[in-house]
Design brief:
The complex is a heterodimer of chains A (445) and B (413). With 445 residues, chain A is an alpha/beta fold. In chain A, 35% of the residues lie in helices and 16% in strands. The longest helix of chain B is centred in the last third of the chain and has 15 residues, at 295-309. Classes of the chains: A alpha/beta (445), B alpha/beta (413).
């Protein structure tokens, strides 16, 4: 794994450059060009890396860019942030002999090549088929909309924010995902003739009935998760953030955070926790602690992110739990905590943790960021009467991503409870096929 | 205690401490360069071809090289539009004299190219007087700007014989005639050289080739101010063709001349291949242009170990051994048939063998998509072993003989 340039992180610039032509030729020539390639089978979005790598090897760079764009409307975004070591690269056959092919690097090269050399836009939707509403212009919504547009449906996306991209736009730091990548993919989506209504939140009760009344014949909900969990012990304090608002401020107004020389404690061990910790450090925090229940080996974040955090000097507190707040009025000044052990192996939830006596510690905390998970906004369950949701508010769907209401589909984080962009893209695509089957009366496969 | 292998050779009565020589090219352009090559361990050098500048003044075209790349593998071959030496005869002769004085135990071969009979005679005589051990007659440069020279002479049996005769008359030195591969049957030309008195044959000079084209300007490369030419191609890519010519020369019983082998030699294994096909002496340029004179260290050490491990004391024991195994395809024993054997503990499940066999052979590989393992359907396998050659695991695919009197082999109907 190559170490990243920490100066770029501090300037919030993309931490790696697209793979060069020279490196891409070399890397693609390492590929075994497998039969029934495992990398392609492992991509939840069906991006088909085996095909675009083969196209690069045979000098068909535009073809590679076309494959990525046509299969995955967030192909550029994924080329920056996809956890390849858990997906395509994990499946790579050559691992039996040597390092896996740098599939993300090749995807980055090809996507960039297509953008730079102006790939012809995909054909616009003829809009000869039904009107469909998509709620949310994030990965799932964009993916579903793109597939439907390609089938000549008349698609309108309703987006609460003023920009596209969802989680990538507001929560993933610029050094991991530059806004230009989202803009590029969004441009490709617009080229398909999808209509986008920004600043158009669909959050009133029974909104679905309203949309149906407006002539939309099917609806896809891809609104993501907008209610981060917070801990009771931090209620009422002014110097704590949930990861969502913190990362959003990092994206839009990081100067106002004033983290220079501060001691920051991030609670959590997932990708967003690490993004928050690295962002705080990049904003100038003197010390950033990452306190999490899991051991280092159990961390759910990607290996690359963990390596990035290490490189940036994040202070890890693995297998640890915050016990109490030390405060001065309504401001947190410190935290006390303790190391934990799991009661039962393999269950990474607070209720399964027991504190280890004699391991108590305290940390100075000028700012506390809570990154302990998230759930759908309260409004989601109210969108349609009778739409079934689970305990935490995620929408229940069947195999075809259809909700309990016929014609109402959902996918992405709001269904899976929070996964990857590439997973959301895959679900959006599958839902689009199911919507087409629903509207044409064909039975879903 | 094993006897130390001896790399020395006798070639046309001249002793070389090892068979490795620089061929006539930019790598042997000056005394200073050749001296460094000797110091690096090369047994001999063929000094860059001398011409008579009063007959024809050589000016090098620029740029004059283009590398042929195979995917990310750079320099698989090299095209050049290099001419013979552009230095004066006097300078070159002075260099040869200095080299022989400084390195009397090393072998110096003077490569010469005349445009007229007197030129050939003059260069031969001057080289001999300067102390050269052998002469090599350049009948083969594929891109000489002087029209009737180089490979055009090498394609003309009468000219080859006549010029060889002129040189033999002018000098007592042993003469090597350097062949062009840009001809159908090299043996015929070599026989002409022999008729003129040649003592040995060197082959191959470079193959006329076009290595690349700029697809925007349509100008082939190297782009020499808007034009290009089919010129000499060398390096690892030409080695299989060169080896074929060496075996042709060696197996031509009527020829019976010692051979100096040239064409893509980079490693001791390459060198050994040429020796096994019948070359006694070996020449290298492209490998040196890419990696420097130092490559001879590994050739010497590798070949010495090979011989020591097999108790081979002298190279003469192995020269030509592989050429003796070559027969006409009509003599193949087709009752001997094999089928592929895939070691499934080594199979990494890439399925390249499946694709290649399916589209390029006899659909004899079965691919289990769940287990990701390939296996051989022996009733369909024709034993071509395409699978073995595409497998990324070097020792995963082997073969076994099929008893064709018992088993119906797919290749025999």
């Amino acid at each position: 794994m190559k170490l990243v340039d920490t100066r770029k992180i501090r300037q919030f610039q993309a931490m790696r450059d697209p793979m060069s032509l020279q490196a891409s030729i070399k890397e693609s020539n390492r590929c075994l060009l497998c039969h029934d390639a495992p990398c392609s089978q492992a991509c939840p979005a069906g991006t088909d890396p085996a095909k675009f790598i083969r196209q690069i090897k045979f000098l068909n760079y535009k073809g590679a860019a076309r494959t990525i764009r046509n299969n995955n409307i967030l192909g550029t975004v994924c080329s920056f942030i996809c956890p390849v070591e858990k997906l395509c690269e994990k499946a790579c056959s050559i691992k039996a002999l040597e390092d896996p092919i740098d599939i993300r690097g090749l995807q980055c090269f090809a996507a960039e090549y297509g953008n730079r050399f102006k790939l012809e836009p995909q054909e616009k939707s003829l809009k000869t088929k039904a009107k469909i509403a998509v709620i949310g212009c994030g990965p799932a919504g964009m993916s579903c909309a793109a597939e439907l547009a390609k089938m000549d449906y008349d698609v309108t996306i309703f987006e609460r924010e003023a920009k596209s991209g969802g989680v990538g736009r507001w929560n993933i730091p610029d050094f991991r995902l530059p806004g230009s990548a989202i803009d590029q993919d969004f441009q490709n989506l617009q080229n398909l003739g999808v209509e986008i209504k920004f600043n158009s939140a669909i959050d009133a009760g029974d909104s679905i009935s309203v949309l149906l009344a407006e002539g939309f014949e099917a609806i896809f909900i891809g609104c993501g998760l907008s209610s981060p969990f917070t801990l009771k012990m931090f209620e009422g304090f002014t110097n704590t953030y949930d990861y969502n608002s913190f990362l959003r401020m990092v994206k839009v107004n990081r100067e106002s955070l004033q983290l220079q020389d501060k001691s920051v404690v991030v609670i959590g061990g997932g990708s967003v926790a690490i993004d928050s910790a690295v962002s705080a450090k990049a904003c100038g925090a003197a010390k950033v602690y990452l306190v999490f229940l899991e051991s280092l080996e159990e961390l759910p974040a990607d290996q690359e992110e963990i390596e990035l955090a290490r490189t940036m000097g994040i202070l890890f507190r693995p297998a640890s739990q915050v016990s109490a707040v030390i405060s001065d009025g309504n401001r947190i000044t410190g935290l006390t905590g303790c190391e934990i052990e799991w009661l039962e192996p393999g269950k990474f939830v607070p209720s399964n943790a027991t504190q280890v006596p004699g391991t108590e510690f305290s940390l100075k905390a000028d700012v506390v960021i809570q990154a302990i998970g998230t759930s759908p906004g309260k409004e989601v369950s109210q969108l349609s009467k009778g739409m079934k949701t689970s305990g935490k508010g995620v929408i229940r769907v069947g195999e075809t991503f259809e909700t309990s209401i016929p014609g109402l589909f959902a996918g992405g984080d709001v269904v899976n409870g929070g996964a990857t962009v590439v997973q959301a893209v895959g679900e959006g695509k599958k839902a689009a096929v199911a919507i087409d089957h629903y509207l044409t009366g064909r039975k879903a496969i | 205690m094993k006897t130390k292998a001896d790399l020395s050779i006798d070639f046309c009565g001249v002793r070389f401490e090892n068979p490795f020589c620089l061929s006539s090219s930019p790598v042997s352009n000056s005394a200073e360069m050749c001296a460094r090559a000797y110091d690096a361990g090369w047994g001999g050098i063929v000094f860059k071809t001398l011409g008579v500048e009063t007959s024809f003044k050589v000016v090098m075209p620029s740029p004059r090289l283009n590398a042929y790349n195979l995917g990310d593998k750079r320099f698989a071959g090299l095209q050049n539009a290099e001419q013979i030496s552009d230095r004066s005869v006097a300078d070159n002769i002075a260099d040869i004299a200095w080299l022989k004085k400084k390195h009397p135990d090393k072998v110096l071969i003077s490569s010469i190219m005349g445009y007229t009979d007197p030129d050939w005679a003059l260069l031969a005589k001057m080289s001999e007087d300067a102390g050269a051990d052998l002469l090599e007659l350049n009948f083969s440069c594929p891109q000489m700007a002087y029209k009737f020279s180089g490979y055009r002479v090498g394609q003309d049996f009468h000219a080859v014989e006549a010029y060889t005769e002129v040189v033999k008359k002018a000098s007592k030195l042993p003469v090597i005639a350097k062949m062009t591969p840009n001809i159908t049957d090299m043996v015929k030309v070599a026989m002409a050289a022999k008729a003129g008195g040649a003592d040995a044959i060197s082959a191959i000079n470079t193959i006329r080739a076009i290595s690349d084209i700029n697809i925007d300007t349509f100008i082939p490369l190297p782009n020499i101010h808007g034009h290009s030419a089919a010129t000499g191609f060398s390096g690892p890519m030409v080695k299989p063709v060169a080896m074929r010519f060496i075996s042709d020369l060696y197996n031509a019983k009527e020829l019976g001349l010692p051979i100096s082998g040239i064409g893509g030699i980079e490693t001791w294994v390459d060198a050994l291949h040429f020796l096994l096909l019948g070359a006694t002496n070996l020449q290298v340029t492209t490998g040196i242009m890419r990696y420097g004179y130092r490559i001879v260290e590994d050739m010497i050490e590798g070949l010495t170990d090979y011989m020591t491990d097999r108790n081979i004391i002298s190279l003469s024991e192995i020269i030509g051994k592989a050429s003796q195994k070559l027969v006409d395809p009509s003599e193949f024993n087709t009752r001997y048939q094999v089928v592929s054997v895939i070691d499934d503990t080594k199979c990494i499940g890439c399925g390249q063998c499946y694709i290649s066999c399916h589209d390029g052979a006899n659909q004899a590989i079965v691919f289990d998509s769940l287990e990701r393992k390939a296996s051989v359907d022996e009733t369909r396998c024709v034993g071509c072993l395409l699978c073995k050659h595409v497998c990324p695991v070097w020792d995963c695919v082997t073969s076994k003989e099929v008893d064709t009197s018992v088993v119906k082999h797919a290749a025999i109907f």
